[in-house]
Each structure stands twice: as C-alpha cells, then as structure tokens.
Amino acid sequence: MGLELARYGIRLDGIRFRAKHGASDSERQLPQDFVADLEVSLPVSLLPESDDRTTVFDYDTLATLVVDEGTRTSYKLLETLAQRLLARIFEDTPALTATVRLRKFGPPTLASVDSAAIEVSGAKKT
Length: 126
Known about the structure:
2 helices
C-alpha cells in the first residue's frame, strides 16, 4: 500500500516590511511597520523526491515577493495591498490557492487598538 499525498502547503508568518500605506496623508508621510502572513498550496508534483534544497520550491521567493510589493508603491487601504499581494502570488509562483493576512500597528482610531488586520483568500484562475 503506497502513500498518496493530498496537499503541499507552505506557511510563512511574520514577513515584516516598512512602507507608507494608510488612508490619511499623515499615515503616508512616514514609514510604518507592516506584517504579512501567507499560506499557499502548491501542486503536490512540486514536492521534491530527494532531500536536496535545489529541488524544492524556495519559500524565500514568497517572502521577497511580499516585501517587494509591499514597498513598491503607497496604498490607502490594506485591502488593496492584500489583493495586490494575492495577485502577485498567482502571477509569480505556481501557487494554486493562497491566503494573505496583512497587519498594521497603531491604526488611527478613537479607541486604543494595537493592530488592525485584514485577510483575503483566492485561487488561481485556470
């Protein structure tokens, strides 16, 4: 009886970058800290058959993509940035599905709030 793998996933937590995102002009004047968490599913066929790093999908590709996109331009909404990250994941990687969680610290609210986060998920169009 052989083993049949059903899923191959990668999860990256705490991808940090500094950027000028926010709804107000004052939020976009100085860089703020942002943290992204990713969860992607990849084709099982990409699992390496040997214990050789050169044969596996390099998760640094995902982390670098997040930092690149997160610092490329300024967005007013976290939702817009998260959707752009999701689009880049599908454009630049073999991911089949993905979830992006994006967090900013000290959002400008009347109440004291440590962080605000949004989450988007999607699947690659076939």
